[in-house]
Amino acid sequence: MKKKKQHFITTTLRDYPSFPVDQKRVEQTIHGANEMLRQAQVTRRTSFSEFYKAQLSFISWKVWMLQLLIVAGMGVLLYQFVNRPHRDIEIVMLASIAAPLLVIAGLQTLTRSLTCHMMEIELSTWRRLEKLTLVRMSLLGIADLIGLIILAILLNVWIEMEIVSLLLYLLVPFNVSCLGSLWLMNRVRNTNCGYYCLAYCGLLIIAQVICSFTPSLSLFLSSATGSWQILLVLSLGGIVYETRGVSRNFKSLETAVKLHY
Question: Which of helix, strand or coil describes residue 9?
């Protein structure tokens, strides 16, 4: 009985007269639907400047607070040494420790795609993952540089040293911290990436602490300024090179994940 009903329905539908299809109208409907979709996407798409500003809110307030605490805490610590005679070199050495500390503050934000298994979530954004990472790197880098500039201004007020020299002594450790972290990010692409970067910055801090209590090394004398300038240029070049590597690696990771799904 059921088969007879199915046969009757199928026969009736097959014999039902269909209206002629106007191919031109079908094409017009498809074209109109595509145009409406394109306009809707254009109106909803954010500009790069809006996207850049929006990333400020996606970086945890704890990161910004930690950076502020590092700068403020280092300022208070350095102030304790200001009134002690002949301690300018030790003060600058201690101030340079703020550079890797600021880098550590932003490590979790940069590596959470791997360490926290957030790759699929971040791939759902309109912008590509590589651009998302580069924007966050630039935001954190700008915040770190502002913090180092503030420290340099404070030191310039407290001790007799040119602000250009102070910035040089603060930027070189910062660049070395960034360069090592980027190098590790390009070569350790798993959940342990953040821990390796943290360990590297920790070793750098230990080395700086040892140097701060060993003024006989003469690292901050005027005769060593040329070496610091060379290190600054080389580290900047290394950062540019490794940043391009980060961009390529995240692009390949994004492509691999999309092919997998």
Answer: helix
Q: Are 246 and 115 in contact (CB under 8 A)?
A: no
* 134 touches 150 (CB < 8 A): no
Q: Is 18 left (phi over 0), alpha (psi -120 to 50) or beta?
A: beta
State pTM to two decimals: 0.74
CA 150 to CA 75: how far, in whole Å?
Answer: 9
8 A C-beta contact, residue 242 and residue 186: yes
Which CA distances in Å does 216 have to 49, 211, 221, 224, 231? 49, 9, 10, 13, 20
Question: What's the chain's length in residues?
Answer: 261
Q: 172-225, pLDDT tens digit by residue?
A: 999 999 999 999 988 887 778 888 999 999 999 998 888 777 766 667 777 778
Amino acid, res. 53: K
